[in-house]
Every structure is written in C-alpha cells, then in structure tokens.
Specification:
Blueprint (H helix, E strand, L loop, with lengths): L6 H60 L6 H14 L6 H19 L2
Helix pairs in contact: 1-3, 2-3
Length: 113
C-alpha cells in the first residue's frame, strides 16, 4: 500500500526543515562573526605586543647607559597593581596577572645581552 503525501503535508515538512536550519544558520553566522572579531582583536594585540617589545629593546640601551639592571621587581609590581586596578573584567585578576607576567618576562628576556 502506497502512502500518498498531500501537498499541504509536504509544505509543512519543508517548512519544519527550514525552521530547523534557520536558527542553526543564524547561530553559525553569529559564530563566524564573533570569530572574525576575535581575529581582528588578535591582530591588534600582535601589533601592540610588537610595539611593546620594540620599546623594551630601546629600554635595554637606556638601562645600560644608566647602569641599571634589566630586572626591576618594584616596577613590575607597580605595573601589575595598576593593571589590576584598571581591570573591569570579565578577565579575572589571576588571569590578568599570568598574562602580563608572561609579557613582562618575554620582554625582559629580550633585553638580556
């Protein structure tokens, strides 16, 4: 026995499938848009990190001329404290600290002779 599907039932099924795909497509589009924004932020971060490194390398010369040590724990603590006070989140204080300690360490290592 053959089952005949009416035009109305077919239209209903097609609409149901389209409704399922619609939200999924919007979600995928939202995902792609958010990823593009993150990519843009990452490019900005990279540019800023390279600017910071160039300045750190210039500081190496200045510190050498002044006879100062590369590592200045007091300065690093002041920097971290200032950043903590500026942080409005959602980045947690400990995450912020880890990120900037790494940035500082990499720049400090680049300043070594």
């Amino acid at each position: 026995m053959k089952l005949l599907v009416s035009q109305q039932e077919r239209s209903s099924n097609v609409a149901a499938v389209a409704m399922k795909k619609g939200p999924e497509n919007r979600i995928r589009q939202d995902l792609n848009e958010k990823r593009k924004k993150i990519d843009l932020i990452d490019r900005r971060l990279l540019s800023l990190l390279n600017q910071r490194m160039r300045l750190a390398l210039e500081l190496r010369k200045i510190k050498k001329e002044l006879g100062k040590k590369i590592h200045d724990p007091k300065r690093e603590k002041e920097l971290l404290d200032r950043l903590k006070s500026l942080n409005a989140g959602p980045l947690q204080e400990e995450e912020l600290k880890r990120i900037f300690q790494t940035v500082i360490k990499v720049c400090r290592q680049a300043q070594q002779p």
